[in-house]
Amino acid sequence: MNIPARFAAFPILVLAACASASHGDANKSSAQVQIDRGQGVFSHSCARCHGASGQGTDKAPALVGIQKGALPLDPPASRQFRKTQFRTALDVAQFVVPNMPPDPAPRLSGDDAWAVLAFALHANGVTLSKPVGPDNAASIVLH
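Now predict its structure.
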């Protein structure tokens, strides 16, 4: 079987195209992948208390809208769970990982909590050049 040279690379190109199509995140930064994951986790695990877009409700405070009071430095007096200040993203994480959600629902895994934090930071205008985690969260200053 004699295949013309112009078609010889076709199977390789098809395999490459299929491989890249099956990895939709290949063109996204690792930070954006974490943010997208966090948005999904937020919708599934956090929105019922914090509101669909993180705007806050009578059950839980706002997570989005720092200029409007989301993630304030000091915990509001009316809040029963949070007692620490949120100076950096690490402060937020140290509160979220062991405490959220507060009801009988399963706690977020560490990876899910970091992803939700990345989503909230992004929604508040913080640009992440890499995924947020224990190694860089203290350098992300909120207040």
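The domain at 29-139 is CATH 1.10.760.10 (Cytochrome Bc1 Complex; Chain D, domain 2).
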